[in-house]
């Protein structure tokens, strides 16, 4: 039996967590005759998660990402387990691990923009942290046997940054709609509270550009509301201040930590999803919106064009005026898009099957 490890320390986080939940969910359904899969979880997830597939084994590691413990302790744990292959699912990984591994690089955004809480620290501290990040990602990209990217856009970005020498080992695999949101029931009680609204779904990191969206909403008819759905964290507090600054408390509503049932309601009933991000690797909220046939207004970035083609209302994310204008035009024209055929391209089940094939192909390399 060949032992494969999966770094699932971000299992409960947004974004990467959704990727991990679905990868492991669909792997559990596979008949793993030749592979044993070790899933590395933080203590809080280790307690609450159990796998039915006897070939998937949970492993507890108390080493968070971006820490010294990750670099030493996590590497030692992996060596002790004597894996045939490791899958690092996030750019933070132990650079002292020199055995065979594949890596998922979800996007190049941290190389292009300030993201995360470290971006709020003084410039010297930020630059030091960013330098370590660049070193770690360089090691990961250059040492990986295969690199999984969620889009062709990310694949091209990585080749542009690291050179054509890595082009042969980068494979782009589209993600999909989480099994959890497919199974969730709509929270119809929200019908009493909300009507005539647009939504934003995601976190509130600076590159998400939500503050510019809030400013743009000043110029939208006051009978429409903007509902911001995302995690309660440091950046959510900044969004609250922005709403107050523009005196939009009646029209822009921040709903923190929405349930899956809440999200189903908002996707099904929103006039449109608005996604003004400056940079993305994929865009899970866009795929979810497509699944519920919710119209999309989003940035004119290369990745969104790859995912959606012409099937959305495109905005210049750097222009408040353009964002306002496109929202108003959308309202006036009652724009609609049909996503029934397009959504078939995106599937976590297919992603898992292709990922498993990558594992098996790499293991067969001498």
Model description:
The protein has 366 residues and is of the alpha/beta class. It folds into 2 domains: 2-176 and 347-363, Rossmann fold, CATH 3.40.50; 185-345, Rossmann fold. It has 14 helices and 13 strands. It has helices at residues 16-28, 43-48, 68-81, 109-112, 123-143, 152-162, 179-183, 210-216, 234-245, 260-269, 284-291, 302-308, 320-333, 348-363; strands at residues 2-7, 35-41, 56-60, 85-88, 101-104, 146-149, 170-172, 197-201, 225-230, 252-256, 273-275, 296-299, 313-315. It has a 7-stranded parallel sheet, with helices on both faces. A 3-stranded parallel sheet has the order 8-9-10, with helices on both faces. Helix 11 links the parallel strand 11 (273-275) and strand 12 (296-299). Helix 1 (16-28) crosses helix 14 (348-363). The longest helix has 21 residues, at 123-143. The chain is globular and about 60 Å long.
Rounded mean pLDDT score: 94
The number of helices is 14
Looking at this structure, what is the CATH superfamily of the largest domain?
A: Glycogen Phosphorylase B
The succession of helices and strands, N to C, reads EHEHEHEEHHEHEHEHEHEHEHEHEHH
- Please state the structural category: alpha/beta
Strand content: 15-25%
Which range best describes the helical content: under 10%, 10-25%, 25-40%, 40-55%, 55-70% or over 70%?
40-55%
Radius of gyration: 21 Å
Distance between the termini: 16 Å
If classified by CATH, what would the architecture of the largest domain be? 3-Layer(aba) Sandwich
Keywords summarizing the entry:
366 residues, 14 helices, seven-stranded parallel sheet, Rossmann fold
């Amino acid at each position: 039996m060949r032992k494969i490890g999966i770094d699932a320390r971000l299992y409960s986080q947004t974004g990467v967590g959704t990727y991990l939940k679905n990868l492991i969910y669909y792997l559990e359904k596979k008949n793993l005759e030749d592979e044993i899969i070790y899933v590395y979880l933080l203590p809080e997830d280790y307690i609450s998660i159990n796998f039915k597939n006897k070939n998937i084994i949970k492993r507890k590691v108390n080493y968070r990402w971006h820490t010294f413990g990750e670099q030493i302790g996590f590497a030692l744990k992996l060596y002790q387990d004597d894996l045939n292959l490791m899958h690092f699912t996030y750019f933070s990984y132990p650079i002292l691990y020199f055995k065979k591994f594949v890596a998922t690089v979800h996007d190049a955004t941290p190389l292009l923009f300030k993201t995360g809480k470290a971006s709020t620290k003084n410039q010297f501290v930020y630059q030091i942290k960013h330098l370590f990040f660049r070193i770690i990602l360089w090691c990961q990209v250059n040492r990986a046997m295969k690199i999984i990217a969620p889009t062709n856009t990310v694949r091209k970005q990585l080749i542009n940054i690291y050179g054509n020498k890595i082009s042969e080992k980068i494979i782009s695999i589209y993600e999909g709609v989480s099994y959890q949101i497919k199974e969730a029931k709509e929270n119809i009680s929200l019908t009493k509270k909300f009507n005539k609204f647009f939504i934003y779904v995601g976190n509130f990191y600076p590159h998400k550009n939500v503050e510019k969206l809030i400013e743009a909403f000043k110029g939208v008819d006051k009978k429409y509301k903007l509902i911001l759905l995302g995690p309660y964290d440091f950046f959510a507090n900044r969004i609250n201040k922005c709403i107050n600054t523009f005196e939009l408390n009646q029209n822009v509503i921040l709903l923190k930590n929405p349930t899956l049932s809440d999200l189903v309601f908002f996707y099904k009933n929103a006039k449109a999803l608005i996604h003004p991000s400056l940079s993305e690797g994929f865009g899970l909220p866009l795929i979810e919106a497509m699944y519920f046939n919710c119209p999309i207004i989003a940035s004119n970035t290369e990745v969104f064009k790859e995912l959606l083609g012409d099937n959305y209302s495109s905005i210049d994310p750097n222009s408040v005026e353009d964002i306002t204008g496109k929202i108003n035009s959308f309202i006036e024209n009652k724009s609609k898009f049909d996503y029934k055929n397009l959504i078939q391209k995106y599937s976590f089940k297919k992603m898992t099957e292709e990922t498993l094939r990558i594992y098996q192909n790499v293991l067969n390399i001498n």
